[in-house]
Specification:
By secondary structure, the chain is of the alpha+beta class. The chain is built from two helices and five strands. The radius of gyration is 17 Å and the shape is elongated.
Length: about 130
C-alpha cells in the first residue's frame, strides 16, 4: 500500500457487539440468557500490503465467530468468557495481540449497577 520505513501497526476494533449469553455464577442466573456487550481490539501481526481482505483480519467473520461461541456454551464468569474468546481469536496467525472486554448489562446485584465487566489482554509470543 506504499513504501514506508519505520514501525507500523494496525488495530482493528469491534465495538458494542450485543449478544445474549448464558452467564452467571448462580445456576438460576443462567436459566435465561442475559444481554452482554463485547468490545474487541486486535492488533494485526503484519501491516497489509494491499487493499484486499485476505491481507487483514475480517472483522465480520470475527463478530460471527464470537456470537457463535457465546451462544454455544454457558459461562459463570465474565473473565472466563473474555479469556476464552481472546485465546481463540489469538489462534489466528494474522492477530498479534488481543483485548476483549465483556460487559454484563444490568447485573443481578442488590445495588443499582448499570453494568459490570472484565477485560482480557494477551499478546502472541514471537
Amino acid at each position: 500500500m506504499g513504501n514506508f520505513e519505520g514501525a507500523e501497526s494496525f488495530t482493528i476494533s469491534l465495538r458494542e457487539l450485543k449478544v445474549l449469553a448464558n452467564i452467571g455464577v448462580g445456576e438460576g442466573e443462567r436459566l435465561e440468557k442475559q444481554p452482554v456487550t463485547i468490545d474487541i481490539e486486535l492488533e494485526l501481526a503484519d501491516v497489509p500490503n494491499s487493499d484486499e481482505i485476505h491481507e487483514s483480519c475480517d472483522y465480520g467473520a470475527v463478530a460471527a465467530f464470537v456470537v457463535s461461541e457465546v451462544s454455544a456454551r454457558s459461562y459463570k464468569l465474565l473473565e472466563t468468557m473474555a479469556m476464552d474468546l481472546g485465546r481463540k481469536i489469538l489462534r489466528d496467525e494474522k492477530v498479534a495481540s488481543i483485548r476483549v472486554s465483556v460487559t454484563k448489562v444490568r447485573p443481578p446485584v442488590p445495588v443499582l449497577l448499570r453494568s459490570a465487566g472484565a477485560t482480557y489482554v494477551a499478546r502472541r509470543e514471537i
